[in-house]
Amino acid sequence: MIETFSFVNLTATSIFHTLMTNKIVLTISLILFVMLSKFFLVKLINKKEKQNKRLKINMLGNAVTVFIFIGVFNIWAVEFQKFAISIAAFTVAIVIATREFIQCFIGFVYITSSRPFRIGDWIQVGEDYGEVHSTDWAKLTLLEVDIDAYEYTGKTLYLPNSKLITSSIKNLNFLKRYAMHHFTITRDSTVNPFVFLDQLYVKAYEYCADFNDVAIRYNQIIESRLDVNIAGPDPKIQVATSEIGDTQVLFTIFCPTDRAMAIEQSITADFMSFWFKQKRLMAT
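== Small-conductance mechanosensitive channel ==
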């Protein structure tokens, strides 16, 4: 009986030792453990947290990725070393073949360390605009934004992190709430817009009256944080001419982004009304 128990105990110990020294088993166990931990932590965040859920889940995902990389590297360190030595002659070819992945990882390290933006910020990368949805070691995910209309397009952009190294990054987060909205109305030169320019100013101030106090405070916050003077919050109207001699009226309105297009349409309607009225008076 004792011999049987000893044999079973010895067998169990041998199996356990074999499993613990089997690097494939250790790697699978590590990944399963980390992914299960991530699953339960995500559930906990969704249940307990009321704000910044997406930010915390994204940070958790990045931490899990780094932890898995470190763990797998430690488990297979000896094999990696032997493998690296055995392919020393092909190092240049491997670097060239994996250049994009290396640049992506370097880009991930760059945005993690410098933090030029956060989850939820509006940014511009090259010619692409969008709200930062998530980041990982390979890519940046943006919810595309039509910067002219200040609204989501419904498209999702996946930008490789390597592009973050070679392209300029502009943080447009202030545009999420208020924007310096510019638009131009072009007409022929038969009517002098200076005749009704004061009326246009009255209309512009009228459309901006209900949020003027908030706009002033927000304008001051932006100037304080950026340490620069920016236009606004008062509306500005300028008259110019195009290359072919047409009259151009340029408007600059500091307003909430969700009302920019509505205000533009209202001012355009008023301009057309004044313009055609003046033209009828000139014809009589």
